[in-house]
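The data are quoted verbatim for reference:
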Amino acid sequence: MDELENYLLDIKNQNSKIENTNTDIEKSMNFISEQITSLESKITYPEQERTTVANKLSSLEEKMESHDRSCIKTCVKICNLPKRIQESKKDLYDMLIKLSKLIEIDLQVSDVRDVSRQYLKKENKTSNLTVEFSNTLIKVISCLWLRIITNVTQTIS
């Protein structure tokens, strides 16, 4: 009988140890669950922020494309114009007006919204000029005259 009591006492001790271990495991699981919940909330915010940034970026890209399309409507690139040292905006406008007179277009400074030089390489003696006209009609007239003069020049040569 003593043996049986010892055996029962031993089983009770083992049961108690198992209960303590289970309690410790349950506490650990609760702690890990809280940490996972905390990490999920920390991950959710950057994901929302990334979505917001992606939407803003998409909106900006659309605005840029729209702006580029509107610029294309009124812009012309004139290639291989000679460079000058210390060239100012006024010099570029004057060069454009002289060029327009050469091709017999009555272009006024008010017809040009902006003119800028595109520098390619420093060693080049020429570079391109980008001209933004105030409206598309002036661009069309200028381009037509340039094509007519180019065609006439090519047929004469």
